[in-house]
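Batch job 17 of 40 flagged for manual review because the log was empty.
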Amino acid sequence: MLVACAHGTRSAAGRAVVRALVEDVRRLRPGLDVREAFVDVQEPTVGDAVGEAVVGAAGPTPGPDGVAAVVAPLLLSTGVHVRHDIGAAVADRPAVAAEPLGPDDRLAGVLVDRLVEAGATADDGVVLAAAGSSDPAAVVAVGAVLAALRARWPGPVTVGYGAAARPDVATAVADARAAGARRVVVASYLLAPGHFHGALAGAGADVVTAPLAPHPDLARIVLDRYDAALR
């Protein structure tokens, strides 16, 4: 079983986007039992979802490798939810946690697609807008995606964060404008609509791209993480 674990959101649009991503995973691997779980706001919790998979007759029996469930984080980088919530859900159970979606060069490709859809050009200053985390590993992961985006995008790209890390998105937008950008485009490095994506509209940019999901490459990354966890 693959337990696709998202953050959770009160946004109806955000819930629909995550649901569409999970459906994409099911379509790509039709024989695989794929279930949703969340670390906050929505249910089932990741702990409950893993418990259903590994305890009692209602769940599947472990495979030959002894793993009954792989939790695949629908999260862009490591952090407290991956280390604590998901880590606790698989601890002392026949279950394992896969790596988060990022960093991955394919995420830079999705960002380019969103920039093109938004009408961004090489004359614009692009600010990669990540949610932010106090976990240093998450900042490193965002830096890897930033480098991959810079390698693919012909214009200048900087980074800003919604919380915890610096600079914040509004400061990064102001810096890009002060550097002479014709327009400033925020590239949303967020999986789905919700609180953080909604806040980007107030950061002072001329354009804000759509979030990453849904996109077929995201489902492929999820399945790659699942396969790697089983190996």
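Reviewer: the log was empty due to a logging misconfiguration, but the result itself is present. Residues 35 and 77 are 21 Å apart (CA to CA). Unflagging and moving on to job 18.
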